[in-house]
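Researcher: Structure for this, please.
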Amino acid sequence: KKRRRRRTTTTTTTGIVSPCPSPPHPSSAAAAELDDLCRRVVVHFAAPLVTDTRTRPYTPREYLEDLFYTKADARRFRAEFRLEKRRIAAASKAAMAAKRGSEG
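Model: Predicted structure, token format:
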């Protein structure tokens, strides 16, 4: 028959529950220290968690295309990125070849 480890919880001053495992050997010094630590842990939050709420006007549907990239834009960005990577790799390769040529 398997024994399950009990878990205790500590409630903080704000009502948030912090799990602290029950020690396997309650008589050990480490277990007593862990138990003491679990009792002392307290979390404090600022009283007003939300200090301000701002709203903006509704965006008409006809303006949405101006606010977001299209799939074609994303494809173009990826193609430009791949081309730039190839250019950098080619320049690096040429620089390495030139360096090897000047050393020999």
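Researcher: Any notable elements?
Model: The longest strand covers residues 7-11. The chain has two domains: 7-40, 63-103.
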